[in-house]
Design brief:
This protein is α+β, with helices and mostly antiparallel strands and 264 residues long. It has helices at residues 2-11, 15-23, 36-50, 66-79, 121-136, 146-155, 212-217, 238-247, 249-263, and strands at 54-58, 84-88, 102-105, 108-112, 157-161, 166-168, 178-183, 186-190, 199-204, 209-210, 224-227, 231-236. Helix 4 (66-79) links the parallel strand 1 and strand 2 (84-88). Helix 5 packs across helix 6 and helix 8 (238-247) crosses helix 9 (249-263). It is elongated. The chain starts with a helix and ends with a helix.
Length: 264
């Protein structure tokens, strides 16, 4: 019915009079006497005219469906190519169109997504999918919500080592993070005194997370980690790892079980 009415107004060449009626509406400060549906669209139109350096969209067009909101972002980017657009929402149905993502948890930014340029988009998407597969196949992270899993994948970085190379040494600080092995095998060694041979404590293969205990306790490494074969790992930073453990009870419980296994 709305489309029929609009078409009829255009055919009768009455759109100018309708605009005059709209412009003649008395406004209170901030447009509080208008419905939110109208104030949002007017504010967005005003922003495209003013062309600000920074535009903040605070949960705008919330009453519209996801395709319309996504189309809004696309159109705004075309109209305001030099503007930094910040979108604030409780959650997003689709995040591929954004250059960076920030998650606010308990009053602080807990995780920051990687910057993505248009030329790198395809490569980054494939790399992110590979990281997600690796995390999903790990028992510790398999129960994470998709949003948290993506944030963890964004912050993780690939790490490779040739056979015989050390990933970290005993007494190193834990700042290098935890290492999720995706390919190859690693040895965990207790260095022997003097020239004595190192003691092999255990070996870890694909799907195993190494070094997380040092992050939790914030203490130096207890063992050496050496690549037994060519090794590919997903290195998870301390902040991202502790954020996940601190905000997901299921992951924290699984980690507690793993630590109990170390003690036994």
């Amino acid at each position: 019915m709305r489309r029929v009415a609009v078409d009829a107004l255009y055919e009768a060449e009455l759109e100018g009079l309708v605009l005059d009626l709209i412009f003649d509406i008395p406004l209170t400060l901030g447009g509080t006497n208008l419905p939110a549906l109208l104030t949002e669209t007017l504010a967005i139109s005003r922003a495209t005219i003013k062309r600000p350096d920074v535009l903040i969209l605070d949960d705008v067009l919330n009453s519209f469906d996801a395709p319309i909101r996504a189309d809004l972002h696309t159109r705004l980017r075309g109209l305001l190519p030099q503007t930094t657009i910040i979108c604030l929402q409780p959650s997003f149905d689709e995040v591929s169109g954004f250059d960076a993502q920030f998650v606010l948890q308990q009053g602080r930014i807990s995780t920051i997504g990687s910057d993505v340029t248009p030329q790198e988009d395809d490569t980054v998407s494939a790399d992110l999918a590979r990281k997600l597969r690796a995390l999903e196949q790990t028992d510790l992270f398999s129960g994470l919500e998709r949003k948290q899993l993506r944030l963890l994948a964004f912050s993780a970085r690939w790490y490779t080592a040739k056979a015989g190379e050390y990933v970290f040494h005993k007494d190193d600080g834990p700042s290098s993070g935890a290492f999720l092995i995706t390919e190859g095998t690693a040895e965990l060694l207790l260095p022997g005194p003097g020239d004595d041979d190192d003691l092999l404590v255990t070996t870890s293969g694909p799907g195993k997370l190494v070094g997380e205990l040092g992050l939790i306790r914030n203490e130096p490494r207890a063992l050496d980690m050496r690549a037994a074969t060519d090794l590919t790992c997903l290195r998870i930073g301390a902040d991202a790892f502790l954020d996940v453990v601190g905000h997901d009870a299921r992951t924290a419980y699984k980690l507690l079980q793993a630590v109990a296994g170390y003690i036994s």
